[in-house]
């Protein structure tokens, strides 16, 4: 658990992005992650509310049972993108697969399963804002993924449970 006093010591205002930023260790992902907190009015004591602290602690308390769901959703995103995207891959690879872009794309990337895509998905940041819902704890995790380098992959959580992806 983290408290407001600890966060106040860690955060720095990033005016370019309109957020407070800091790094912290995620027990779920077993590594440091970048945290972004939306800066409503650039006054730390007003922007970093108790609700924000609760939401950060909700992130820190993601249960390990969510791991399979997260891996599955990353894999599904990968499969959707490889079916729908022309990556401009080598014509020889496309010919090898009889112009089947999905098969050619999958060979191009070389990922076999959800473990592979999970390993390659890099957390860009975890985002928090002071959304007005007082009964639920929301946050989102933004990933950089090589198969969707323009938009990445965003996972939305409610009360430490994965709700949706984009």
Give a description of the structure:
Helix 4 packs across helix 7. By secondary structure, the chain is of the alpha+beta class. The two termini are 28 Å apart. Strand 6 and strand 7 form a beta hairpin. The longest helix is centred in the middle third of the chain and has 18 residues. It has seven helices and seven strands; from the N terminus they run H-E-E-E-H-H-H-H-H-H-E-E-E-E. The chain has a seven-stranded mixed β-sheet. It folds into two domains: 104 residues, no CATH class; 48 residues, no CATH class. Helix content is 37%, strand content 27%. The radius of gyration is 19 Å and the shape is elongated. The model has no long low-confidence stretch (mean pLDDT 94).
